[in-house]
Amino acid sequence: MAAELATELPREVHAVLADFKLRGGSDGALLLSDAPLDNPLPLTPTSRGAEINLPVSEMTLGIVGMSLGVILGFRGEAQGRLIQPLYPILADTRAQTSSSSAVRLDFHSETAFDPNRPDVLALLCLRGDPDGAAMTTFSCATRVMSHLSDAQIEILRQPRYKTGIDASFGGSVNSEDDPTVSPIYGSETDPGILIDTDLMRAADPKDEPAKKALIALNNAVEKAAVGIVLRPGNILLIDNRRACHGRSDFRANYDGKDRLLLRTMVAYDPWRRSGERRPRSLVQERVGR
After folding, report:
1. Is the Cα torsion angle 149, 151, 155, 157 positive or negative in sign?
2. Which residues have C-beta within 8 Å of that of residue 151, sequence separation ≥ 6?
3. Which among 123, 120, 5 has a CA at the least distance from the CA of 69?
4. Helix and strand tally (H, E) in the chain?
């Protein structure tokens, strides 16, 4: 049903989404407001994998996602759910995961390890952080590169780096099988960025220029960052090719009133190289599986 309803969006919304798909939006992101939500809204879960019934909110995010392309899920994460609830979990308080709270979530590209990573990360806020402290941050490649020297950019455009695979996808720390990547790519006028400040490293531990350039890149990402505190009804679209993202730390109370988001990932056309017929959603294995 969401696929059919996507064609019924107001013309001005279609125009805004089409422009975002083409240009990536200001600072690599687009904020939509006043999205329909479930009313009443159920309590924020406190345990991993909790069942939560959000038909209106899920339909809302699904319609926006399908207006852009194909909604993606990964079997290794959230059992392949195409639309996933995000909320703090006590056991993950200080982990580098979306269910943490007491530590900031470092800047990263969504599924940076996968060459077929999604084009867009979409977040729908159902319940905001009561303290207003949870800030979603993003940093676009164009602004990042303005803080780097030409020599640093030249190194970062080379495949001299490896990025680890998240534990939820079966990865391990500093594996030889980790994919080799270039953190900066694309044209000079429309560059892309691929980063995971927690898991990316120089492919050769002795490559000092690559290591120094990566440190400079991480610093540049911080300098170029923009942040927003999401409010109920906000949909934040982040261009996963042109920008990376993260989140500030915040206080979680685990009382049913904590921050609650829905997340989905979108590929504009994952079959463009294979020529397969395009369905409206896809669950895929991680790269190499």
Report:
1. positive
2. none
3. 120
4. 6, 16
Which residues lie below 8 Å from residue 284, measured CB to CB, with a gap of 6+? Answer: 72, 73, 74, 75, 116
Q: Which amino acid is at 37?
A: L
The amino acid at 244: C
Alpha carbon distance 243, 2 (integer Å): 27
Confidence of residue 287 (pLDDT cuts 50, 70, 90): very low
pTM, to two decimals: 0.91
Nearest residue to 107 (alpha-carbon basis) of 52, 191, 163, 158: 163
Question: Following DSSP, what letter does each residue of 45-72 receive, concatenated?
Answer: P-STT-----HHHHHHHHHHHHHHSEEE
What does the block give as tokens for 77?
């994460």
Homologous superfamily (CATH) of 2-284 is Clavaminate synthase-like (3.60.130.10)
Q: How much is the mean pLDDT over the chain?
A: 89
Dump pLDDT digits (tens) for 183-195. Answer: 999 999 999 999 9
Q: Can you spell out the DSSP letters for 72-96?
A: EEETTSGGG-SSEEE---GGGTTSS
- Hey, what are 237's tokens? 């679209």
Per-residue pLDDT tens digits for 121-130: 999 999 999 9
Phi and psi of 220, rounded to 5°? -65, -40
Tokens 């107001």, residue?
Answer: 10
In the chain, domain spans? 2-284
Stretch (H or E) spanning 152 = helix 150-156
Distance CA 41, CA 29 (A): 27
